[in-house]
Amino acid sequence: MATTAADPVTALRTILHVDMDAFYASVEQRDNPELRGKPLVVGGAGARGVVAAASYEARRFGIHSAMPVSRARRLCADLLIVPNRMGVYAEVSRQVFEVFHRYTPLVEALSLDEAFLDVTASKKLHGSGTDIATKIRRAIEETLNLTASVGVASNKFLAKVASDLDKPDGLTVVPHPPQPFLDPLPVRRIWGVGKKAAERLETIGVTTIGDLRRQPDGRLRSLLGRHADRLSELAQGLDERPVVPDREDKSVSHEQTYGTDLTEFEACDRQLLSLAAAVGARLRRKGICGQVVRVKIRLSDFTTLSRQLSLHTAVDDDQSISRAARGLFKRWWRRHPDCAIRLLGVGVSQLKESQRQDDLFGPSEAATIDKLKDRISERFQDAGLKPATLVKPPAKDQDE
Ligand SMILES: [Mg+2]
């Protein structure tokens, strides 16, 4: 397809939508050669198990995600059912996003395996949108042995529609203006047009996006109500929504997955102290501080929750961060004392530039200790000082 032409009037953005192909299923086939070329689903094998992902071989039988595994089995007698390895998928996802970030900081994750990238400002350095899409696809294939499909367009809506058109292992570039691309597609390709809306549109003879675009506004409004205006905009290929980079960029956080689940309060408490110290050191290195402290907790069954606290003032010292984080965790633990914890994280958000008032009142004691610690750990790397509790478990009655 033609590449996006330069438009002298409106400054066109270049947006990529990257979507890994049958992500969990492809990771399983990559890691286990015996599974390649075979119909498989990733999901729970139990009576109420649901398909989390289906390989392309399984999709040929009409199997898709969110379908009960029992139903998938009836559709394909030879179906292989592979248990979910979420930790592995999360790690591969991290590697995939690391590839995205080589080309732009404007990455908005939609899920573990899908993201929007705004590469408008990256073109000088990395070539056209199509070039960047090709480089990303190649890097994913060569380093991770997986395939991704990419849509390249001037906005999110068009990029998302495009990435889905040539799956798996596809690259689709939407021309500008987009009408020749968009008009022949069925209306169901538009986000939010489900079966019901499609049926209603069919009653007035609308089956393609082109049909929809040519409808008078009033007619659509009486048929679809408040969604009509948005739909008619999309049918024209218009979508102004910006790519919003992931929340991580607006916070500084550290998290750790544990090989063996943590089941004791003291062990968790020590981990939080160490995570808080890592966050504090990074904040000070960046010269920023933050007012909201967050604790992230992931249980052994992958339930993930977070608790946060807004402080009176923005902080960057280990003591304030760890006091808040440990307090949040302690309150949660009191109600859930029998949990097995797989991951803990500490984050600080609502960031702003640090403005130390050392000259007015003299540095606070905590700030002096942290500064000293930072200087020592810079010199001795990991052999730096640690809070005493990290070295020796605290006695139970010492806890706050
Ligand atoms: Mg996908």
Question: Could you characterize the architecture of this molecule?
Answer:
- With 400 residues, the protein is α+β, with helices and mostly antiparallel strands.
- Among the domains are: 23-85, 3-Layer(aba) Sandwich (MutS, DNA mismatch repair protein, domain I), CATH 3.40.1170.60; 183-235, Orthogonal Bundle (DNA polymerase, domain 1), CATH 1.10.150; 247-398, DNA polymerase, Y-family, little finger domain (Dna Ligase, domain 1, 2-Layer Sandwich), CATH 3.30.1490.
- It is 40% helix and 21% strand.
- A hairpin with a 7-residue loop joins strand 2 and strand 3.
- Helix 4 (86-101) runs antiparallel to helix 6 and helix 13 packs antiparallel against helix 14.
- The longest helix is centred in the last third of the chain and has 22 residues, at 265-286.
- Estimated share of beta-strand residues: 15-25%
Number of strand elements: 12
Q: Ligands bound here?
A: magnesium ion
Question: What is the helix content?
Answer: 40-55%
Task: Please give the largest β-sheet.
Answer: 5 strands, mixed
Query: Based on helices, strands and strand pairing, what is the structural class?
Result: alpha+beta
Mean pLDDT value:
86
Give the CATH level 1 class of the domain at 247-398: Alpha Beta
In angstroms, what separates the terminal alpha carbons?
64 Å
- What is the count of DSSP helices, taking H or I runs of 4+ residues? 17
CATH architecture of the domain at 247-398: 2-Layer Sandwich
Broad shape: globular
What CATH calls the topology of the domain at 247-398 is Dna Ligase, domain 1
Rg of Cα set: 26 Å
Name the CATH superfamily assignment of the domain at 247-398: DNA polymerase, Y-family, little finger domain
Strand arrangement within the widest β-sheet reads 5-6-1-7-8
Low-confidence stretches: 1-9, 357-362, 392-400
